[in-house]
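Hi everyone,

Forwarding the result from last night's run.
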Amino acid sequence: MIHIVLYEPEIPANTGNVIRTAMATNSVLHLIEPLGFSLEDKYLRRAGMDYIRDADIRIYPNWEAFTKKHPEEQCYFVTRYGKRPPSSFDFSDPDKDIYFVLGKESTGVDKHILKRNLDRCMRLPMVADARSLNLGNTTAVVVYEALRQQNYPGLSFTEQLKGEDFLENLDPDALS
């Protein structure tokens, strides 16, 4: 199972977007406090839309409480200091728990934590002048790389809400 871990997130809209990704990919979302917002925040709810009620969200008061239940050795850290892309890691076993840890928007994951886990630090390749991508975008890229390696277990390849043949059956006059 894929687990998304947000280490002290600060921006509610980013966390809302990650909630949507977690729900849509059947991933568990772990939030490490302190949070830079309330879970009742209107921006969080707007970005998370109605996905919030269906997402599996777990909250921890700090990193130590999280690692008591989930050892650091199971974690992969997404950081600007990583030297390998996500595609260089083997996430192909869908039965293995994978924890992707992403840091707060201003400073990332605590540098002491990263230093202890250098072999599991990754960076999304980008131009040299860019520090990072948006937290929600980065989360989606990393999660979908792991899902790609697993051939998207349990996820639908077709439109389910309107039907997989929706476009084929669409009245051409409705397009104008």
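DSSP finds five helices and six strands in the chain.

Cheers,
N.
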